[in-house]
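Curious: why this fold?
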Amino acid sequence: MTRPTRIAMAAAAAIGVGALTAPPTTAQQPGPDTAAIWTIQGENASITTATLSDRYYTNGLRLGWTSGEGGAPDFLERMGRTLWGDGRMRIGFDISQQIFTAKDNTSGYPPPGDRPFAGVLLGTLSLQHDDGEARSAFAVSAGVVGPSALGEQVQNGWHDLIGQNRVQGWDTQLHDEPVFQILSERTWRLPVTSLGAVDVDALPSLIAGAGTLRVYGQGGVTFRLGQGLDSDYGVSRLRPGLSGSDVFRPTRPLAWYVFLGADGQVVAHDITLNGNLWQDSRSVTLKPLVGEFQVGLAVMVSGVRLTYTQVFQTQEFKHQKGGLHQFGSLALNVRF
């Protein structure tokens, strides 16, 4: 697929992303929640049941802030009500970094067909809406791929700190290039049944993303079992993972749940696989269909939510080795 074709597909997907913004039904909610939420999250491929680590999607870091309800500027409140109808609105901002490496990260020059080395550094501004039965969000991200994303410095700096060998091959990484992405998503919260003192629900989700970073559509569902399920819409992940939200509002002194989820992605473009848009670089042929499975646990107590997710991901590109790619995701959310 040529670069102009990928750009055209990104533009077309950007026009169509609003398809997820039809107003949902409205449910009665408690009073406004004015607490802001801070989030720190890490994902790493060394948290795995496999024998190999530091390959493909290697590491992700994210620091986020979400306002209390009513914290969005008036013009964004009006935009949100136009998109989704009445409900509670918040704004959020986060900074994230993701690191991708080849499977061969010791030779200094991975063979053709191996994943390109790439770092991605993004800032994301989001508008979030909650009507009590569904959560919707619209987000705009901008940043850079390439050496300025500091992937090499973070990865090898950490390896130096813990006494591991440095990863070789960063000299072949993608070149510096600005990237952007817009994203629209909706997650529904559907009660399923009660089993004595615990409840079961389902969180079906639809997501569309478009831009020079990634063009994709995603659908999935998460099933949860626990107490206080109405406290949130599931755990957060770095995109494009099946993510709930950083927002939580405990409805009992101790809320908790275990969960199992799966999603499918239709991918038209991913710069970390297809390579730079505006200059020659290493690249591989992406697979247009990607699946993920995840299991984990969330605990909420005293204004703190701690979540862990184990992810199993199918191959993202042709000639990818090692079967399912695995990584863990740990997030801490604190209300202020």
Q: What stands out?
A: The domain at 3-335 is CATH 2.40.128.140 (Lipocalin). The first helix runs from residue 3 to 16.
